[in-house]
Design brief:
Surface presentation of antigens (SPOA); Chemotaxis protein chec; alpha+beta; 3 domains; Flagellar motor switch protein FliM; four-stranded antiparallel beta sheet; 11 helices; extended; 24% strand; six-stranded antiparallel beta sheet
Length: 332
């Protein structure tokens, strides 16, 4: 049965059509059976669930924010990067969808197997390079004639940019991105077999007045070991995970062994900058406390106790007389 809910008017109209002979119940049953058969294209195998694609989208939304910050600092101009889409397609389809000459940065992401592509539209790449060289961010598409200097500038820029993926993926797996190849012709880059499924995350990119796309292509073989971690169930389990007793004991032990500065204040006063500049050896400063008043003892900069000064053997000491309630900055 279909999961569609009919209104009362639609139900009445349907019953009326059957009763008058305008519609045959047997035809409806045949139509329902036909709807159960779905066309499946084995060349476009869906290896990831919608839930896993949503998780990858969230991860790369964080990656887009990190890239925005990175490129804004490097290029010193307006930069806006956001996720446009996340799709699973055959690798061959990805290669056909990008320009014939473009900027392809290939990375390994150990400990995961396989390689990832960071494809940057030439308009964006040249606008970035122009800004790095001190220009206004003008884009001139001449990918087929990149000089060695231009290639080095671009590869260095995108290699450091891809380091942000390590932080974006940190909640799923610890990776160490390493750039292994820089290519401009997609036909020379055989990452996986043509029919293998890849996830392509497309990022809308605005650099000053220039706009274009940055695509992150991730083969299924790279994500296969961490696919279970991409489900919402895994995220919920991590959020609700309770600390085990051993972790609590270790945390308490570390807190107890932490160093805290303890300061005993004799008093304080206010003087003008002029008086401060005229201070000399032998001058006396009047404090706001009488000699018989207890001193305030601060722990970590917060008033905690009152005490009186004294000596233990040959060392100066202070005896605690009272505990301050609240422990706020005023000691009240």
């Amino acid at each position: 049965m279909s999961g569609e809910i009919l209104s009362q008017n639609e139900i009445d109209a349907l019953l009326s059509a059957i009763s008058t002979g305008e519609m045959d119940a047997d035809d409806l049953k045949k139509e329902e059976l036909e709807k159960r058969v779905k066309v499946y294209d084995f060349k476009r195998a869906l290896r990831f669930s919608k839930d896993q694609i949503r998780s990858l989208t969230r991860i790369h939304e964080n990656f887009a924010r990190l890239l925005t910050t990175y490129f804004s600092a490097q290029l010193r101009t307006y930069v806006q990067i956001s996720v446009a889409s996340a799709d699973q397609i055959p690798y061959e389809e990805f290669i056909r969808s990008i320009p014939k000459m473009t900027i392809l940065n290939v990375f390994e992401v150990p400990p995961l197997d396989g390689r990832i592509i960071l494809e940057v539209n030439p308009n964006i790449a040249y606008s970035m390079m122009d800004r790095v060289l001190g220009g206004r961010g003008i884009s001139v598409n001449k990918v087929d004639s990149l000089t060695e200097i231009e290639t080095r500038i671009m590869s260095n820029l995108f290699e450091k940019a891809f380091d942000n993926l390590q932080e974006a993926w940190g909640t799923i797996v610890e990776i160490e991105p390493v750039m292994t190849e820089f290519e401009v012709n997609p036909q020379f880059l055989q990452l996986v077999s043509p029919n293998d499924t890849v996830v392509v995350i497309s990022l809308n990119t605005q650099i000053g007045e220039t706009s274009g796309m940055i695509n992150v292509c991730i083969p299924h073989v790279v994500l296969e070991p961490i696919i279970p971690k991409l489900s919402a169930h895994y995220w919920m389990e991590n959020a609700q995970k309770e600390k085990i007793p051993e972790e609590i004991m270790i945390l308490e032990k570390r807190i107890r062994s932490a160093d805290l500065p303890i300061v005993s204040e004799l008093g304080s006063t206010d003087i003008t900058i002029q008086d401060f500049l005229l201070l000399d050896v032998g001058d006396v400063i009047d404090l706001n406390k009488a000699i018989e008043e207890p001193l305030t003892i601060k722990v970590g900069g917060i008033p905690k106790y009152r005490g009186q000064p004294g000596k233990v053997g040959k060392k100066h000491a202070i005896q605690i007389l009272d505990i301050l309630k609240g422990g706020d900055e005023d000691g009240k």
